[in-house]
Amino acid sequence: MEALRIAVCEDSAIEQKRLIFLINGCGIPAVVSAFDSGEALLADFGRGKYDLIFMDIYMEGMTGIDAVTAIRKIDSHVPVAFATTSTEFALESYRLDALKYIEKPVQKKAVMELLELARFKKEQIPSLLLQISGKDVSIPFDQITYAEQMGHAVVFHLHDGSSVKASGKLDDYEDRFDMQPFFRCHKSFLVNLTYAQEIDPEFHIFTMSDGTNVHIRREELSAAKKALQDFRSQDH
């Protein structure tokens, strides 16, 4: 079972340690990253980076509501659970599509329910199933920034900076991306338009969100521009 990637944003060291202790005691594999402010979480945050966020509301500086409002502009789907001593912002939290609103002191039962919900949501995410070294490996499509043909293998570059290599040709995988926001811009490249920042028409490249340049076949330049424009108009 793949571990859940969880962010805990809590400015009280005691509450933060308690919540991490409860998460680790639920028996569901999890990798927890802790932050003591909304600003710190936002500095680290990226689309698809976490499977669940526990967010305190009352913090010095940016409130939890403000932090999640900013997060929703980057990732509209990441599950968020607000943890607080007051129900004052309950309606506001649901406006931000919060998974749950829990009161402190947080109880293990509530944490377990949230982890199970997050795991269920994670399992429903559209993913690419690969065979690597005889094992099935599932990669969410929204984690793939682009795919690249390298020799007799395809390298899937991921949002977190890592990559996964699978044998075969890019042609063999392309059909699996039909319902996803990907564009085949070159015989050796397939890009996720979600991570495409801009197109350089002079050098025929996509500039990706991490600064990587992905080549566009000259004959595909007009189609690439249209695909990116159409994607952005649908996304907004």
Outline the structure in words.
The chain has 236 residues and is an alpha/beta fold. The protein folds into two domains: 4-124, 3-Layer(aba) Sandwich (Rossmann fold), CATH 3.40.50; 127-235, LytTr DNA-binding domain (OB fold (Dihydrolipoamide Acetyltransferase, E2P)), CATH 2.40.50.1020. Helix content is 31%, strand content 33%. It contains seven helices and 15 strands. Strands 2-1-3-4-5 form a five-stranded parallel β-sheet. A hairpin with a 4-residue loop joins strand 13 and strand 14 (205-208). It is globular. It starts with a strand and ends with a helix.
Explain the layout of strands and helices:
Layout: E1 4-9, H1 13-24, E2 30-35, H2 38-44, E3 52-56, H3 64-74, E4 80-84, H4 90-95, E5 100-103, H5 108-124, E6 127-132, E7 135-140, E8 144-150, E9 153-158, E10 163-167, H6 170-174, E11 182-186, E12 189-192, E13 196-200, E14 205-208, E15 213-215, H7 221-235
Parallel strand pairs: 1-2, 1-3, 3-4, 4-5
Antiparallel strand pairs: 6-7, 8-9, 8-12, 9-10, 11-12, 13-14, 14-15
Secondary structure tally, helices = 7
Rg from Cα: 20 Å
| CATH homologous superfamily designation of the largest domain | Response regulator
CATH architecture of the largest domain: 3-Layer(aba) Sandwich
Summarize the structure in short.
The protein is α/β, with parallel strands linked by helices and 236 residues long. Helices cover 31% and strands 33% of the residues.
List key phrases describing it.
single chain, 236 residues, Rossmann fold, OB fold (Dihydrolipoamide Acetyltransferase, E2P), five-stranded parallel β-sheet, five-stranded antiparallel β-sheet
